[in-house]
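Before our next group meeting I need something from you. Please put the record directly below this note.
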Amino acid sequence: MKVAVVILNYNGRKFLEEFLPNVIANCDPALTEIVVADNASTDDSVALMKERFPEIRLIENGSNGGFATGYNMALRQVEAQYYVLLNSDIEVTSHWIEPIIEMMDADSQIAACQPKILSYYHKEQFEYAGACGGFIDKYGYPFCRGRVFQNLETDMHQYDEPKEVFWATGACLFVRADLYHQIGGLDDSFFAHMEEIDLCWRLKNAGYKVYCCPQSWVYHIGGGTLPKNSPRKTYLNFRNNLSLLVKNLPKHRVHRIIFYRILLDWVAAFKFLFEGCPKDFQMVFKAHWDFYKRLKDLRKKRSYNEHKLVSCIYRKNIVFESIIRGKKKFSDLKESDFTL
């Protein structure tokens, strides 16, 4: 099969019931296989699939290993030229697959790609998880075309040109299947959050490109598994962000960047505390502690990469540029401040 659309589910019966018919209606069966991989759900998701969607292939993972392990377990059982990792809380549109596949077919150096991600509830607005393609700054802070921190732009077609980006969102990630397996898939130790940034960085370290193709677009609810204000999400984001920096930065930059990033993390931690969020403060401490415990293993994983300075990194601090200098939109940033 040319394309396998793989939806990872954990206790997401309501999303499968609402959005899977839409995915089925907007996938060409001659081009695409749809697979639902269930991460040992405790609701009746599996029963729903067997009763309502018996024609859809169902993979039942034996345990809930999170986003990373769940997909790795499932994709080892799926054969296709391209994988599409699709969140269960996404409404796709007609011809959402074809523009991206055409782009990737035309350029073998494009390893991964995403569509434009718009909000399901505010369809004229970019959605937080991916918007119109992801970037990071020199300290590893992620942001997007259309979303800088919590500032979400209205889609005025200002970012409609296909563009090389640093990372493509895991909410709707197109990736070449052979390269996915070649570089080891998603990092199981991440569990969830930022594993797609790590994957894209490894692909870039291997000499490939990551793109956003806005000629395809989908609508994302977001926060379907962990809400945006969850302390658990704070923990995973802080721990995994440090992890991907250690794994992927060039050797001559890694120690300096980690030092400054840890200082900035503690600024963020005390900000949580002053804002009345003591659990988030505690999660930053726990994230750092667990990061230190796994540092030896993270260093071993560096051997898989060339660790060069790759394209699309913002060479300034996006925190300073956004909060102090008032640059709230991606278009406020100078193109010359990004690595080529």
